[in-house]
Specification:
The chain is of the alpha/beta class. It has a domain at about 25-265: Aspartate Aminotransferase, domain 2. The chain is about 40% helix and about 15% strand. The protein has 15 helices and 13 strands. It has helices at about 25-40, 55-70, 80-90, 110-115, 135-140, 160-170, 220-230, 235, 260-290, 315-320, 325-335, 350-355, 380-390, 400-415, 420-425, and strands at about 75, 100, 120, 145-150, 175, 185, 190, 200, 215-220, 295, 310-315, 340, 390-395. A four-stranded parallel sheet has the order 3-2-4-5, sandwiched between helices. Strands 10-11-13-12 form a four-stranded antiparallel sheet. Strands 1-9-8 form a three-stranded antiparallel sheet. The radius of gyration is 23 Å and the shape is globular. The protein starts with about 25 loop residues before the first helix and ends with a helix.
C-alpha cells in the first residue's frame, strides 16, 4: 500500500470501531433472574453444617467444573486473587518461606505470596513462550524454598513436565496460576490441572467470566479440604485435637455468590467455542503477518495448545530500524485496538525495591536466610522483552470475526510498508 500512514496524516486502515467481545447472553440474564427470584443470593454459613459448602448453584458449578476439567475437586472463590491466597495457604507455607514465581504476571500472584508472610523469588522467563524458565527456577532454589508458582501467561501452559521434575527433586509444592489460560491443553490434560493446585480466573475480561470470581482445581483431597476451610472462616469450623491441623487455618470470606455461580456454570459451556474462536483468529493472524521483517508471531510448544488471551509478538527493532513505541503508535493510529508495548516486571516494583510490606521493618524479608535479588539484571530476558521487544494484542478485547482480523492484518502490512516514513521521523 502506498498511502501515507495514519500517524502521518493518511487515512486509517480501520475506520470503524471493532465489535467488542460480548460474553453475556440472554441465558445468563435468565439465570441471574432465576436466582434473584429464589431469594437466596448466598447460602454459605461460616459454621459447621449443611451450608458450610454453599448453596445449590455454587455446588452445581463446582461439580460441573470438576467434571469439565477432569479433576476430583473444583472449589469456587469470589476472585482469583482469593484463589491464589487459598492455594498458597493450603500447602502450608510459613513466614519466611520462599516461593519461586515469574515476574511476568499480574501483581496478585506475588502479593498472594506476601499475604502469607512468605517471600517471592523471581525466576526469568523463556524468550519464546514468555512463561517461567525451568532452568532459571532451578538456579533460584535455596534452603527456604517451599514451592514453585508457575503462571500460564497469555494462554499457554508453562513447561509443567520440567517444573514437576524440579519440584519432585527438591520436595517442593507445584502451583499453577492459569488465570489467562482456561481451556488450554498440555497433552491430553487441561492447563492448570497438572500442578498440585491450579485454577482459573473468572474476571470480566477473561475468555469466560461471571464478573468477578475464580475456581481452584486439585486431585488432592486434603488440599481441597484446606482450601474449602480457608474460603469460609476455617477457625470457626475446624475441630481437631491436632495442633498441626491449624497451620494457616485463618479463615476468610472468599465465597462465591449464587448469582455468580449460576452465570459461571453457563459460561463454562461456552469455553470450548470461545477458545476455538481465539485460535481461529490467531491462525489467521499467523498467516496474514507471515513474512513481515523483524516480527515474530507467537510460538506454541509441542504437545500443548494456546488459547490466546494475548497474541504475543516479538520485534527485532535493530532490523526494523524503528523503535517498538513508534510501531505501536503507528498501528494504533491505523485503528488496531488492544495493542500494547511490553508487559511488566514485578521484581522492579517499588514494593520489592524497598522490601516494605508489613510494617516499616522489612517484614517478611527480615526473616530471609539469604539476600533475595530484585534489581535490574535479575531477570534479563523478561527485562529486555518488557523494555524493547515485546508487543501484545489483546484478543479477548474484541469478537474478531474473520473480516476484523483481516482489517488488523491490513493495518500491520500498511505500517510495515511505511517503515521508511517512520525512520525519517
Amino acid at each position: 500500500m502506498t498511502s501515507a500512514l495514519a500517524l502521518l496524516g493518511g487515512p486509517k486502515s480501520i475506520d470503524r470501531p471493532l465489535e467488542l467481545f460480548q460474553a453475556m447472553g440472554e441465558d445468563e440474564v435468565e439465570a441471574a433472574a432465576r436466582v434473584v427470584r429464589s431469594g437466596v443470593l448466598s447460602a454459605f454459613i461460616g459454621a459447621p453444617g449443611e451450608f458450610f459448602l454453599g448453596g445449590p448453584e455454587v455446588r452445581a458449578f463446582e461439580a460441573k467444573a470438576a467434571d469439565y476439567f477432569g479433576v476430583k475437586h473444583a472449589i469456587s472463590v469470589n476472585s482469583w486473587t482469593s484463589g491464589l491466597i487459598c492455594a498458597i495457604g493450603a500447602v502450608g507455607i510459613a513466614p519466611g518461606d520462599e516461593i519461586i514465581t515469574t515476574p511476568w504476571t499480574m501483581s496478585a500472584t506475588a502479593m498472594a505470596i506476601l499475604h502469607w508472610n512468605a517471600i517471592p523469588v523471581f525466576a526469568d522467563i523463556d524468550p519464546v513462550t514468555f512463561n517461567i524458565d525451568p532452568a532459571s527456577v532451578e538456579r533460584c532454589i535455596g534452603p527456604k524454598t517451599k514451592a514453585i508458582m508457575a503462571v500460564d501467561i497469555f494462554g499457554q501452559s508453562a513447561d509443567m513436565v520440567e517444573l514437576r521434575q524440579i519440584a519432585e527433586r527438591h520436595n517442593l509444592a507445584l502451583l499453577s496460576d492459569t488465570a489467562q489460560g482456561p481451556g488450554a491443553k498440555v497433552g491430553n490434560r487441561f492447563a492448570g490441572t497438572v500442578a498440585d493446585i491450579g485454577g482459573f480466573s473468572l474476571n470480566y475480561h477473561k475468555h469466560i467470566h461471571c464478573g468477578e470470581g475464580g475456581v481452584l482445581v486439585t486431585d488432592n483431597d486434603r488440599l481441597a479440604e484446606r482450601m474449602q476451610l480457608l474460603r469460609n472462616h476455617a477457625e470457626s469450623v475446624l475441630k481437631s485435637d491436632d495442633p498441626a491441623e491449624y497451620v494457616n487455618m485463618i479463615g476468610y470470606n472468599f465465597r462465591m455468590g449464587e448469582i455468580e455461580a449460576a452465570i459461571a456454570a453457563l459460561q463454562l459451556d461456552k469455553l470450548k467455542a470461545r477458545v476455538e474462536s481465539r485460535q481461529r483468529a490467531a491462525r489467521q493472524l499467523d498467516e496474514g503477518l507471515a513474512g513481515l521483517e523483524g516480527l515474530t508471531t507467537p510460538q506454541t510448544t509441542d504437545g500443548a495448545t494456546h488459547v490466546y488471551y494475548v497474541y504475543g509478538m516479538k520485534l527485532d527493532t535493530e532490523k526494523l530500524g524503528v523503535t517498538r513505541e513508534q510501531l505501536v503508535a503507528a498501528l494504533q493510529a491505523e485503528g488496531v485496538p488492544g495493542l500494547f508495548a511490553g508487559y511488566q516486571n514485578l521484581h522492579l516494583l517499588p514494593i520489592f525495591q524497598h522490601r516494605i510490606a508489613y510494617g516499616p521493618d522489612h517484614f517478611p524479608w527480615s526473616l530471609a536466610s539469604r539476600e533475595i535479588a530484585y534489581g535490574p539484571g535479575t531477570c534479563p530476558v523478561a527485562e529486555e522483552l518488557h523494555t524493547r521487544s515485546f508487543m501484545g494484542l489483546n484478543l479477548c478485547m474484541c469478537e474478531y470475526p474473520p473480516e476484523d482480523v483481516a482489517a488488523v492484518i491490513t493495518a500491520f502490512r500498511k505500517v510495515w510498508s511505511g517503515l521508511g516514513e517512520l525512520r525519517l521521523r
